[in-house]
Amino acid sequence: xxxxVYDNDTVLVGxxxxxxxxxxxEFICRVTNEEGWRALKNNSTRERVETYLNQIxxxxxxxxxxxxxxxxxxxxxxxxxxxxxxxxxxxCSALIPLVEWLVLVQEASGxxxxxxxxxxxxxxxxxxxxxxxxxxxxxxxxxxxxRLFGSSSNNVDGQIKLVFKRLVELGYLTKPNAxxxxxIATGKLDYLYEVIRFIDETEGLxxxxxxxxxxxxxxx
Length: 220
Hints:
The protein has nine helices and five strands; from the N terminus they run αααββαβαααββαα. The strands form two sheets. A three-stranded antiparallel sheet has the order 3-5-4. Strands 1-2 form a two-stranded antiparallel sheet.
């Protein structure tokens, strides 16, 4: 009985806030909004949100094997296709600097796997490793000067802080505690990986292979 009451409350109270977040173009995952994420995992809440979105030609889309939720179009007319095309071009224009950043973080952190949702990045430790390795410093300088980040700084401290600030603004990272230099990867990265795979499959760009090659170059 208690569980039923809680579920109903979740449906009634949580749906409006979730709908607003989705319509703003935000991604809901365990990291960005655990309460909203749990609500969308609840069939009753998800159906309520979906019913409302369908009325305005929207639908709940997901990535990362159903662990990340965002808003998509239910049907694509000419106007919707223009919006989707514009959004896709925007993502594609950011792919190279984002992939290079992911490769740098993976290399400098000594990780075997790419950054994924929930993974912490301790900026102070990462910065120290980059400063101690000229190749990493060069990588950071190059990617920080892409238009996506737009850094004009000539030192690692200024470059890396601007890059991470921008990634928080873009929704790929979150900084739970303003007093600590610890960032958490969000589920939007899983969406990015799916976009990369889609482009690989349809355009033959082999972005993942390029990233893997870059990851291995320090071993050659």
